[in-house]
Amino acid sequence: MKGRTVLKSSIGAALLCLPLITSAHARPAEEMGQRPTPPRTTGRPADPIAVTDTCGLRMAVRYSGTSATPKVREALVASVAHNRVRWIRPGTAITQDYRPDRLNIILDEDGRVMTMRCG
Question: What keywords is this UniProt entry annotated with (predicted)?
Fold first, then answer.
C-alpha cells in the first residue's frame, strides 16, 4: 500500500508542476531574451501559379493538353497579352537564360501542350 501512496503523490506533484512548465514555454520569445523562431515552411508555395505569375501562366494554363495548331498558338499569345512565348518540341535546342517574363510551352511528340512555365 505504501508504494501506491508514493506513486499517487509523485503523479500529483508532477501534475501540480505542469502549469508552471507550460506557462514558461507560453511566454513570447522576446520576453525571455530570445529571438523568435520563424515558422517552418516546406520551401514550396501552396499554389506556384498564384505566387508569381510573371509571364501570363495563369491565363495560358487552360491550353494544357490541346494541339498547338496555328489557331491555338494565336489564341494563347492573345490570352497572355505578349509575344514572349517559346514553343519547345522534344529535342529542340534552347538557351538556358532565365527570363521571368517569357512563357515556355513544352510540347510532346504530337505537338500537344504538355506543360508550361515562366522562364
Answer: Signal
DSSP 8-state class, residue 114: E
Does residue 56 sit in helix, strand or coil? Answer: coil
Q: Which domains does the chain have, with CATH numbers?
A: 48-118 (3.30.10.10)
Question: For the chain, what's the residue count?
Answer: 119
Looking up cell 498547338 gives 68
pLDDT in tens, 13-36: 555 555 555 454 555 555 556 666
The answer to whether 104 and 88 have CB atoms below 8 angstroms apart is yes
Q: Is 37 helix (H, G, I), strand (E, B) or coil?
A: coil
Strand 85-88 versus strand 113-118 pairing type: unpaired
